[in-house]
Write a structure and sequence with these properties.
- The protein is mostly beta strands.
- It is built from no helices and 26 strands.
- The protein has a 26-stranded parallel beta sheet that branches.
- The chain is elongated.
- About 0% of the residues have low confidence.
Length: about 300
């Protein structure tokens, strides 16, 4: 593995111009580590900082694990990536650590990952700030897997989930917040799978092309709060897809909309599929349901 910031030190990697950095190992637990305890796994309370900046036409290619923050060490670790341009690719992207402040901040360029977990482990937290460019995940995409994860979309940023997007998985707490930009979910979206999953939309466009499931396990809650923007549901080449509000038995699903638009295309609405479902409409919200509303 390659390390940027290790054992109480500060490390900085800057990729600009047409610069290229490659980390070729494909092992699932090896790759590029920011703010790490190092290969010996020694924990420390000393301040350890790891920074990476990608701009212009720079390229960062990590075939295996790209780990921002130290998910298993002490609390004195801080990892941060800033991308204003260029291209970043990773086999697996982790944004996590046992201290606060672990972030991927993207305002331009393209970031792609086969798998991504924001807040992947118990007692870890991580944030992905997307205000420009494109962030695309091919397979598993977890926001709050067993830790606390946040995906914040604004400006012209576009997040694309090509498989299932799970918000609040395992013992995690996940939040997806849109204040502009776009969210395109080509796979299913699950909120409240193992703990609490919340999506908020105040501006921007969210498109769910397959099932939206709020409340995916007994005793768990999935929630969307929309105060603006546009949410479109069911655009899957005419296939039957539904928003399920309260999907699993014993779960709770809530959709609150007070502004903006919510529309289904070629589909209806499932309220309380097996759990308890609430769809609360108020304010200036406009809701269009193309099919049946099933209670």
């Amino acid at each position: 593995s390659a390390f940027v910031g290790i054992h109480g030190s500060t490390g900085r990697l800057v990729i600009a111009g047409d610069g290229v950095v490659q980390v070729p190992t494909t092992a699932s637990n090896q790759g590029l580590m920011l703010a790490s305890a190092g290969p010996t796994g020694l924990a420390t309370e000393n301040k350890t900082f790891g920074y990476i900046e990608i701009s212009e036409n720079g390229t960062l290619d990590v075939k295996g694990l790209f780990n921002i923050g130290n998910a298993s060490g002490g609390k004195g670790y801080y990892g941060e990536v800033k991308q204003t341009g260029g291209t970043v690719s990773a086999g697996t992207l982790y944004v996590a650590g046992q201290s606060t402040g672990h972030k991927y901040i993207q305002s331009g360029g393209t970031c792609t990952a086969t798998n991504a977990r924001i807040g992947p482990n118990t007692n870890t937290s991580g944030t992905y700030e997307l205000s420009g460019g494109t962030f695309s995940v091919a397979d598993e995409f977890y926001v709050g897997y067993n830790g606390t994860g946040a995906l914040n979309i604004s400006g012209t940023g576009e997040a694309v989930a090509n498989s299932t997007l799970a918000v609040g998985q395992g013992n995690g707490k996940g939040t997806v917040a849109m204040d502009g930009g776009k969210l395109v979910a080509n796979g299913e979206v699950h909120a409240g799978v193992g703990n609490i999953g919340t999506l908020t939309v105040s501006d921007g466009d969210a498109t769910f092309k397959k099932h939206l499931k709020l409340g995916c396990a007994s005793g768990k809650t999935g929630k969307i709060v929309q105060t603006g923007g546009a949410v479109a549901m069911g655009q899957n080449n005419g296939s039957a897809t539904f928003p399920y509000i309260g999907y699993e038995s014993g779960s709770t699903g809530v959709y609150e909309i007070s502004g903006g638009t919510f529309a289904t295309v070629n589909t209806g609405l499932m309220l309380g599929n097996n759990g308890t479902g609430t769809f609360d409409i108020s304010g200036t919200a406009v809701v269009t349901i193309a099919g049946n509303v099933n209670l």
